[in-house]
Amino acid sequence: xxxxxxxxxxxxxxxxxxxxxxxxxxxxxCSSHELSLPNSLKLDVTNQEExxxxxxxxxxxxxxNCAAMTNVxxxxxxxxxxxxxxxxxxxxxxxxxxxxxxxxxxVSTDYVFDGEKGNYSEKDRVSAKGVYAESKLAAEIAVKTxxxxxxxxRVSVLYGWKAANMRENFxxxxxxxxxxxxxxxxxxxxxxxxxxxxxxxxxILAIIDKNERGVFHTCGSTCLxxxxxxxxxxxxxxxxxxLIDKTTSKEFEWLAPRPSNSCMLNNETQKRLGVKLxxxxxxxxxxxxxxxxxxYE
Length: 297
Fold this sequence. Notes:
Layout: E1 2-6, H1 11-20, E2 25-30, E3 40-42, H2 48-58, E4 62-65, H3 72-77, H4 79-100, E5 103-109, H5 131-146, E6 150-155, E7 158-159, H6 170-179, E8 184-187, E9 191-192, E10 195-196, H7 197-209, E11 214-217, E12 224-225, H8 226-236, E13 244-247, H9 267-273, H10 280-293
Parallel strand pairs: 1-2, 1-4, 2-3, 4-5, 5-6, 6-11, 7-10, 8-13
Antiparallel strand pairs: 9-12
């Protein structure tokens, strides 16, 4: 199968491309960073003509869109940039995939939920708050409307070992700070379903291999607050948990609203895809074993 990964220089995109390349012919795109993939190309995904030309010339059987502006406060500061990448680009990809009869798997987020309930299933009503959340929800609607052969894979707080050109994720940031002996403050009132990027990539490829359609919660299996997550990171990597202080969201001057509980249920996704989605403990153990083998960035 010929597979096109949009945003292959990011944490999730790199995992999708790397895992898929074991069995498929993989092409990866990025906007600025160099890729280690043999088939890599620069693509401005916010340029409709570029997107159309790339998909029509490559004619992949499937496209995975991992590109996004994920800095939540950054989206609030630069709403036009956020909508260009998070809303319009997926729309262009959906049109191109529909025209070229290829599957589109679009990566979305737990932020499409308002966070008032928690434990959301794929069938629960969405209600986005803030520019980031609204732009990602608009993308889901566009993909569902414009592309018949499509799937939406929702993730939450992606983590995993990163390449040098990637920004820190929650786990690598926490490890770096604690290893340096620095104190960190983590909130107790924001609950999510942290997602190991390697595991999410496995689930996304299962969607393609099984030719599935619809909405999937390809997220981790643990619902917990950031403080508790930090304690588990310290325990998994033998770090000093006493450096972690409790706090609440009120102590941070965030521009954008954060859902208080955006945990997602993944039972149905695991059943449909036949993929085990890791608990936080299992995900951190996976990372620790990668480090012990020297198989990490």
